[in-house]
Amino acid sequence: MQLSVKGRSLEITPAIRAYAEDKLSRLTRYLENIVSMHVVLSVNKHRQIAEVTLRVRDLTIRAEEEGDDLYSSIDLVVEKLERQILRYKERIMAHANRTGNRGGRAGAVTPAGQEEPRVVKTKRFAVKPAAVDEAILEMNLLGHNFYVFRNATTEEVNVVYRRRDGHYGLIEPEA
Questions:
Q1: Cβ neighbours, 10 Å, residue 104
Q2: 3-state helix, strand, coil in the chain (%, to 5)
Q3: What is the bridge-based pairing of β-strands 129-130 and 146-151?
């Protein structure tokens, strides 16, 4: 397993690195085939943020938490990842029990008495070629939080979205 701990706007001390590695190693109890763990720790004014991305074969699990200090942020993000992993394993087991086979991707598990989530609306539209800045402008004109477009330079379908911090994100397909 590959583990990287990086700092954004701060220097990672050996103590923080060791603490993060120790806490994150607990996740191997739930998933033994973790390919990589990428940890980004950052300090932003009064916010101490821990972001973790796990790669397990074809699955990516990501969590972000903030706390009073980096140690509590790491604790919170590990707890969140544990919940996500357990929920994923429950879905696999529910799917295996429903279809009679083991493994495979699974649908959502719903508590008793609740309806399973489903697609309730489908929308079709023309994907127009545009530059990234044009797509952002179009998204803002429409008042949406995301916009799907064909990137004029790469000819690939991309998505631009508005981030919580007020900036924009771009989603591009991998080759």
A1: 9
A2: 35, 30, 35
A3: parallel
User: How confident is residue 111, by pLDDT bands cut at 50, 70 and 90?
Assistant: low
Fold (CATH) for 129-171? SHC Adaptor Protein (3.30.505)
The helix or strand, by DSSP H or E, that contains position 53, with its residue range, turns out to be strand 47-56
Residue 134 and residue 170 in contact, taking contact as beta carbons nearer than 8 Å:
no
User: Under CATH, which architecture does the 2-99 domain have?
Assistant: 2-Layer Sandwich (3.30)
Taken in order 69, 74, 77, 78, the sign of the CA dihedral is negative
Q: What is the mean pLDDT of residues 92-109?
A: 58
- Pinpoint the residues of the chain covered by CATH 3.30.505.50: 129-171
pTM for this one? 0.55
Pairing of strands 157-162, 129-130: unpaired
Q: Which residues contact 105 (CB under 8 A, 6 or more apart)?
A: 92, 95
Q: Measured between alpha carbons, how far is 135 from 37 in angstroms, rounded to an integer? A: 33
> Hey, what are 104's tokens?
């495979």
